[in-house]
Amino acid sequence: MQIFSYQPPSIPWLDIRYIDRDIIVINKPSGLLSNPGIAEYTHDCALTRLQERFKDCILVHRLDCATSGIMVFARNKKAESSLKTQFQNRQTQKTYIAEVAGKFTDASGVIELALAADKANPPKQMVSETGKTAITHYKVISQGDNKSLVELKPVTGRTHQLRVHMQALGHTILGDDFYGDEPIINAAKRLQLHAKELSFSHPYSGKPMHFSSAHPF
């Protein structure tokens, strides 16, 4: 099992992009957990930082610790139920930006590879014929010296889905210390994966909500 060194960033402490009586939207930095783990040292996370100011804050979904970008939290049980249902029923739209190794032959495509837990190497995931359905759309934005900037739109929301799908395609995300080899890990100071856009329906009014955050790499 990989040893987890946790040193969450403190500046900015919270980057709140929107708040009302039902929801809070933040731009989570890379290196900050979405919610606490079992170990005491993982208490500092996006959820507990928000709960220090807004005691009613409830976790709805997660981003990997190393992934940055847009997250939405609920402020009451009705909002929590509505948002979780939207995520579960694939009624939300999510767009990620990633910097990956290599150049693509096809400018766009769809990755349909089922995923399952890698029981020999937790918490890693792996491609498995007996795993859960996982679908990702990709589109190349630009290509440079043996690396590419791609837009990723996951249809499903499996653990580490984008990281494993990119690795399986032969284009591991730069800076990925879970699925990359030493050159990949050393190619960037952080995982080059950012949750750029999130769209959903407001849990109270039903109004379409859309939030975006420019990728920091």
From TrEMBL:
<dbReference type="InterPro" id="IPR006225">
    <property type="entry name" value="PsdUridine_synth_RluC/D"/>
</dbReference>
<comment type="function">
    <text>Dual specificity enzyme that catalyzes the synthesis of pseudouridine from uracil-746 in 23S ribosomal RNA and from uracil-32 in the anticodon stem and loop of transfer RNAs.</text>
</comment>
<dbReference type="GO" id="GO:0160151">
    <property type="term" value="F:tRNA pseudouridine(32) synthase activity"/>
</dbReference>
<dbReference type="InterPro" id="IPR050188">
    <property type="entry name" value="RluA_PseudoU_synthase"/>
</dbReference>
<comment type="function">
    <text>Responsible for synthesis of pseudouridine from uracil.</text>
</comment>
<dbReference type="InterPro" id="IPR006145">
    <property type="entry name" value="PsdUridine_synth_RsuA/RluA"/>
</dbReference>
<dbReference type="InterPro" id="IPR006224">
    <property type="entry name" value="PsdUridine_synth_RluA-like_CS"/>
</dbReference>
<feature type="active site">
    <location>
        <position position="64"/>
    </location>
</feature>
<keyword id="KW-0819">tRNA processing</keyword>
<keyword id="KW-0413">Isomerase</keyword>
<dbReference type="GO" id="GO:0000455">
    <property type="term" value="P:enzyme-directed rRNA pseudouridine synthesis"/>
</dbReference>
<comment type="similarity">
    <text>Belongs to the pseudouridine synthase RluA family.</text>
</comment>
<protein>
    <recommendedName>
        <fullName>Pseudouridine synthase</fullName>
        <ecNumber>5.4.99.-</ecNumber>
    </recommendedName>
</protein>
<dbReference type="Pfam" id="PF00849">
    <property type="entry name" value="PseudoU_synth_2"/>
</dbReference>
<feature type="domain" description="Pseudouridine synthase RsuA/RluA-like">
    <location>
        <begin position="22"/>
        <end position="168"/>
    </location>
</feature>
<dbReference type="GO" id="GO:0003723">
    <property type="term" value="F:RNA binding"/>
</dbReference>
<dbReference type="InterPro" id="IPR020103">
    <property type="entry name" value="PsdUridine_synth_cat_dom_sf"/>
</dbReference>
<keyword id="KW-0698">rRNA processing</keyword>
<dbReference type="GO" id="GO:0008033">
    <property type="term" value="P:tRNA processing"/>
</dbReference>
<dbReference type="GO" id="GO:0160142">
    <property type="term" value="F:23S rRNA pseudouridine(746) synthase activity"/>
</dbReference>
